[in-house]
Amino acid sequence: MLELILLSLGLSCATGVLSLVASKARAASKTIACVGGMGAAALSFAGGIGALFQTATYASWIGPMPFTNFTLLLNPLAGLLIAVIAALAFVAWLYGLSYFDEYYEAGIGVIGFFMNLFIASMNLVILADNAFWFLVFFELMSLTSYVLVIIDRTEASLKGGFLYLIMAHIGFLMIACSFFAMASATGSLEFEAFRTHAFAPGIATLAFFGFGAKAGMVPFHSWLPQAHPAAPSNVSALMSGGMIKIGIFGICKVCFDLLGAAGGEVGWGVLVIVIGAVSSVLGVVYALGEHDLKSLLAYHSVENIGIILLGVGVGIYGWAADLPWLAAIGLLAGLYHLVNHAMFKGLLFLTAGEVLHATGTVRMDLLGGLQQRMPLVGAAFGIGAVSIACFPPFNGFAGEFVLALSLLDGSSLPGVEQQLGLLMALVVLGLVSGLAAATYAKAYGITFLGVPRSRCVEEAHRPRPRDLWPLAIPAFLCVAGGLASGHCFRWLISTVNAPLPDPAAGQQVMLRVADMLGTVSLVGMVLLALCQWSVFLSGSADESLWGLLLIPVATRACAGLAVLKLRPMGTSQYAAMGRHGGYAAALAVLGYSTQEVQMALKGVDVENLPLEEIIRQSLKKMVK
What we know:
With 624 residues, the protein is mainly α. The chain is 77% helix and 2% strand. It contains 27 helices and two strands. Strands 1-2 form a two-stranded antiparallel ribbon.
């Protein structure tokens, strides 16, 4: 699989150079860049997916100097990040076939060259297993993305690009200092030498803030709402859906991999959870007050990075506290939300690009009524909105539900402080989910519903059919990722096994949670289908609109309440029931108390009866 990824890197570099050489023939340059980029993305996606089901692969070439040995490592965690970036890159290049027509004057050859180099540098950062080359490719990733941010050369893009460059180099310096401290202690820049040495805990803290600056966590978040709106929309999708995840990858790599010999520190997990909670709350609050659609999406990247950090923090805490099942579920929840966020945030940025292309603005107070003029774009934005707001049965709900399950067992931890900490994180998760739902109800309603508020909407042109295909791919993945969440969860288990020192201890719990998740998603899908069908039968357009908006909100609210109601029974007891435990959890999601769930299942042979018969017998008891 490493060979496929290396081939994709070579194709990206060759495509970028050819696009630059042919820049005077604008149409040819665009076609070379986009088609070649799609081919490279397909190769790296195949290699990344294949790496999920294989053991780690090493490759090393001797460099001209002792510290420049070119060492690469492809393990399941690296394969996951490469596959996510490749999927986004394919959609971004496909989108560029029509979207880049607007950038002929800016220099299509320059865009093709730097965008190919940007994607290749992200993959090389993930693969590098030598500190020198890691820093080289990390800097290359920052510089190439900076050029793409300022490609319009407007005042806003130059200002946003400058701020991004400053924050990127602050993070780079902190990462470099942590790596050089490790190299000073081991006498080598090879990561393999770092893995066998016990370092001081302060090194992890320095690296965490360095990678956190790239991820856009608070207090290093200010560049996101400046840089993302300034970049071309498909570049914004790549940066928000892919590049900031390099920061999450770096945090996991340093804590679980490079510093694994020293063992985890509980303080690391607490720090990550606190920063994640603060980032998620502030990100969604800032987004709620935004009137620029792309800035709103950028602030929500801060929020979702915070949610991912909550999962990673729980994973670090469980690892340090010798709670392997908690480490496995927490880390897997964070990584699953990482994948889901890449899909729905990529979709939302691309739909924002279509709005900008059709109207010339993304100021929501100037829009309105676009659903009638751009119905498919509005539908795609709606799918992305309900996914990012974590409504079942879409993909965003699945990752957040598993994260809630990992936080549920705070009561089983030793010490009041630990119990209170995880339960407070659970409250933050519920608060953020509610505010996210409000934010996207506002964004969708103001942008697509109502009547036009300006001439730019009245004069908006309808998108061409070829403009809509790039939206269909992430929209499908948002739906499929929710309906098939149990299977997706199983596929990601190998990525958790890679960084954790004792993966077998949490394996059984992860498999049982996967069964539970599949059942909960299925129940959510059936409920939404039945409710929306009843609204459709009402025959009133106004009732249908409000019903469609209120039903997912009510369902999501019930899921939040269920988190608290599941607490007395405990996550492990539900997980021990396998797929039937998923049905029990689904009943709690619908608002039934723990006592009602236990009474409904009392006397039912959950071990031997099929799921359909369990549902029939338990519902019969509840009706009585």
